[in-house]
UniProtKB/TrEMBL annotation:
This is Tripartite-type tricarboxylate transporter, receptor component TctC. Residues 1-29 form the signal peptide. It comes from Noviherbaspirillum suwonense. Keywords: Receptor, Signal. Belongs to the UPF0065 (bug) family. PANTHER family: BLR1237 PROTEIN (PTHR42928:SF5), TRICARBOXYLATE-BINDING PROTEIN (PTHR42928). Pfam families: TctC (PF03401).
Length: 331
């Protein structure tokens, strides 16, 4: 290579770097110029939807732009997730997803996307679940319930919102802890499962506090314990023991939610969204609304992209073992 060619090659590389830097700086200065959409891959009114709407409201001020929520339900979250994974990587279409994103690799052969297609922006919160039952079940304590399960086992119907849902995952851990073989009854969403539980068509369900608290408070279902390691302080659950203290040693299950963007979104835009997210999850109004539901807003390294990704990878490995031990084959 001649000196002229070498010099020309170096000059082109330098110019490319300068242009990339200029584009990145421009993206940071201009983003967002229009409304930002958060896709929730589940139906409106569910736990993920409620959390996303609280977050959208809290993001408006730090982003200086309107943030709206779009529900794209179907295939246990795969349709909405794939839509974001294929979206333009300009920061205007984001995703709020829960623990199901970490279980998908073990549950589905072809979910329609790869987690590598997403950029990690930070964890939002963690929500415990409750073990609830129809009011006709005998007894009111976990000890009473365990005796009933031991006597009836496979005759008992354990409802969930579909394979891979939070209620399904909690149910897997519950059955393992109880050494039980209850009959799993999957529904197409939380609402129909809860309706049948309240109507007595199914016996038990493990459901997020976001959805179960109103039914517990109105005594439409019985509650046997919460899945967190500490008792909750919300009015409906203040007197409810944790499942661990009620006898299921080591029981710990929380449903977390995270924020994501399409792969290849410019670093400057990712940084700006993460900064807005960290501001939003400290918003007193958001924190108050979340705590009123028994939900903990994340306040550690997982609110950063690197911490979020590390935590996520651990969850993928954890649930791969749980799903394998349950004998569930990927669809």
């Amino acid at each position: 290579m001649t000196d002229f060619a070498r010099t020309r090659k170096i000059s082109i590389a330098v110019m490319s770097g300068l242009i990339a830097s200029a584009v990145s700086g421009s993206a940071l200065a201009e983003y967002p110029e229009k409304l930002v959409t958060i896709v929730v891959p589940f139906s409106a009114g569910g736990p993920s939807d409620k959390i996303a709407r609280d977050l959208a409201e809290a993001l408006r001020k730090p982003l200086g732009q309107t943030v709206v929520v779009e529900n794209t339900a179907g295939a246990c979250g795969s349709i909405g997730t794939a839509r974001v994974a294929r979206a333009p990587n300009d920061g205007y279409r984001l995703l709020v997803h829960h623990i199901g994103l970490a279980t998908a690799p073990s549950l589905y052969k072809k979910p329609g996307y790869k987690t590598e297609d997403l950029e990690f922006l930070g964890l939002i919160n963690e929500a415990p679940s409750t073990l609830i039952g129809k009011t006709a079940l005998p007894g009111n304590s976990l000890a009473d319930l365990r005796k009933y399960i031991a006597e009836n086992d496979s005759k008992i119907n354990l409802a969930n919102a579909g394979v891979g849902s939070a209620s399904h995952l909690c149910g897997l851990i519950l059955q393992n802890a109880l050494k039980s073989n209850m009959t799993s009854v999957p529904y197409k969403g939380t609402a129909p499962a809860m309706t049948d539980l309240m109507g007595g068509q199914v016996d038990l369900m493990c459901e997020q506090v976001t959805n179960s608290s109103p039914q517990i408070e109105s005594k439409k279902v019985k509650v046997y314990g919460v899945s967190s390691t500490k008792r909750l302080t919300t009015p409906a659950l203040a007197d409810v023991p944790t499942l661990e203290e009620a006898g299921l040693k080591g029981f710990d299950f929380t449903v977390w939610h995270g924020l994501y963007a399409p792969r290849g979104t410019p670093p400057a835009i990712l940084d700006k969204i993460n900064a807005a997210l960290r501001t939003a999850i400290k918003d007193p109004s958001l924190v108050k609304r979340q705590e009123a539901l028994g939900i903990t807003v994340v306040a550690d390294a997982r609110a950063e992209p690197a911490g979020h990704k590390k935590f996520f990878e651990g969850e993928v490995n954890r649930w791969a073992r749980v799903i394998k031990d349950a004998g569930i084959q990927p669809e």
